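PT: before anyone asks, these are the final sequences, not the draft ones from last week. 770 residues across everything. Please model them as a single complex and drop the result in this thread when it's through.
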Amino acid sequence: MALTNEILKQKLSDKFGEQLTEWDEQYGLLTVRMPAEANLKVIQHLYDAEGFQFLTDLTAVHYPERTGEELCVVYHLHNLVENIRLRLKVYVPVEKPDVYTATKIFSGANWMERETYDNLGINFVGHPNLTRILNVDEMDYFPLRKEYQMEDPTRLDKDDEMFGRGGSI
Amino acid sequence: MGRPVQYNTNMKLSPIPEGYSGEGFMATSFDKVVGLARKNSLWPLPFATSCCGIEFMATMGANYDLARFGSERMGFTPRQCDVLLVAGTIAKKMAPVLRQVYLQMAEPRWVIAIGACASSGGIFDSYPVLQGIDQVIPVDVYVAGCPPRPEAILDGILKLQDLVHNESLRRRNSPQYKELMESYAIQ
Amino acid sequence: MSEQTQHHIQLAEESLAKQSTTLNLGPTHPATHGVFQNIMEIDGERVLSTVPTIGYIHRAFEKIAERRPYYQVTPLTDRLNYCSAPINNMGWHMTIEKLLGIKTPKRVDYMRVIIMELARIADHLICNSVVAVDTGALTGFTYVFQWRELIYEIYEEVCGSRLTTNIGRVGGFERNFTQVAWEKINKFMEGFPKVMREFEALLNRNRIFMERCIGAGPISAERALNYSFTGPNLRAAGVDYDLRVAQPYSSYEDFDFKIPVGTTGDVYDRYMVRNDEIWESYKIIEQALAKIAKLEQEDPTQKDVFYAPESDHYHLPPKQDVYTKMEALIFHFKMVMGEIDVLPGEVYHGVEGANGEVGYYLISDGGRTPYRLHFRRPCFIYYQAYPEIVSGGLLSDAIITLSSLNVIAGELDA
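LR: through. Structure below.
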């Protein structure tokens, strides 16, 4: 029997019970939130038992207004055999953005996690080489967080008012 | 039967510079001869990073044929080249590399900034992107476009040829030039 | 500045005591076709290990996308994989369509398929001819580039631009294909097989080429999957995963085509997979042209369908109306200034780009710009396997492996 969102949801609820919350199914993609300390357990179970052996994407989102859970790490897993996708979310506070690394399960997670660290400052615990990858090594902030502006803050060459960029566009 | 031979009659020779000529000799100023020689044998160094580099490949290709203008040979070592063609976005991480390449080139050297990114940062008005390569090295010709069409790149090279042709031999020793180099902290 | 100047040529201190040599390849090395830096440990001709450094053209696409209205994100997607920009453009438009629930008419789907498959052919032509250049055969490169120019002319006729196309709009195209565009497509379809066969005759069974490529830079299917490979590189390793079949978009389910797969995942397999995909793309375009002709024959009004009717709110009004009607002018102004209403929501949409699954993870909060937009960039994900692939092989194999993986710097660094 083909794996569908309903069956998968049932199976995961049976296995993990209350740990998985905020079930959602926008545009046909099953989404679930898992606690930060259990993320590897869930992913490993999905890898071993449910055939989600392909990590499509890993990224993070910054929600400054969600106090206590500002950063959200998003995993997109794919079961290539059943051809079904799953989105997993982990929320962590911005003061202590610790998430366990998925590099032990997926080799491909290595750079994706480094990129996420580089842009949003998620601390992937256990990552073999969690250093900046895209930005210059000297950078001392995480530029994709919402409080930082797009333009270089030290820039002097362009007058913001002349370019209509003084506001919050 | 011999193969039919075709001659390309649609050629343009560089005009002989003005001067005094008689039987078996010609006298003209050194500037003009050197300018003429330099102009028609510019060796480009393509410093292609992104999209503009692909258009530059098209410029080198058979349809547009950069070789017609004496830039037949792409050199990939800065020590041999005269023109640095910067095609594509230069990020701040890349800027020291670009500067290093420029420093390795021997005088006289020229720089063309191909495309909006190299000229001004283009649409990438963001923290990792250098807002125009003229912040780290002096630029002679800017080519507009995102990316510029191959014709535009050719036009930029022809503009540079004009500059090279008319450049005084003493320019690189002039105080203005030294001041320019100083402003980029190049000795 | 002088401190930074020396920054990129730092060598590991212990390298002096070692038997092996440290070789810095890049970031502006001519053989790497882009800005990749690899600090390699080599023992003679063998690569012991390599440490890639990337980010030399990082441009913060994702940050810029948070400050740009939806239509202004399209030019950003152009510059991801600039060798096949239309696929990225249409992937982005399809993401917004998914978010808004717009269903495009069949004719639009087929027109998109034509453009996307042309883009795939152009991309694969570049990749394969560059592999040939790196093995020492420049002829094929100059030869097929003339035909790539024809593809560019088609783009130019459709959207006005050659390389970074910004083609299409939400719900379809900005204007119908002109007669000239159709003629150019037909001209391409007529002449291309001959050129492609000559290109194949030059390389496919060429002894020198085969001996250079076979066995160079292989990767197993297990490792490729674990590294999240997609696209031709995964298929060369023997996994028949193709989003056009697995999760069809833009009516790909109507087409009859094969997914070529390799066995060993080496350079030659990657080359052959791309080579066969060019032919499959050619067949898809043929079918799409026939399907459009059939649609138009059955219903002549179909000739004027080039965008989804329900996407009217996201589509610029005709230019003659803008000059004569006030509502159209106001609407045009609103559209151009990016004041289009979108729904809040989260959507992931993947398309089969020329290099693999190009994914758009869009979070919209209903504002005029995306709240967060993440691009799944296939090059970035599979380039991390490069050290594992080339370690133990020859240095010259490392070069052709890099070009056969088809890592595009713009997509790698975003």
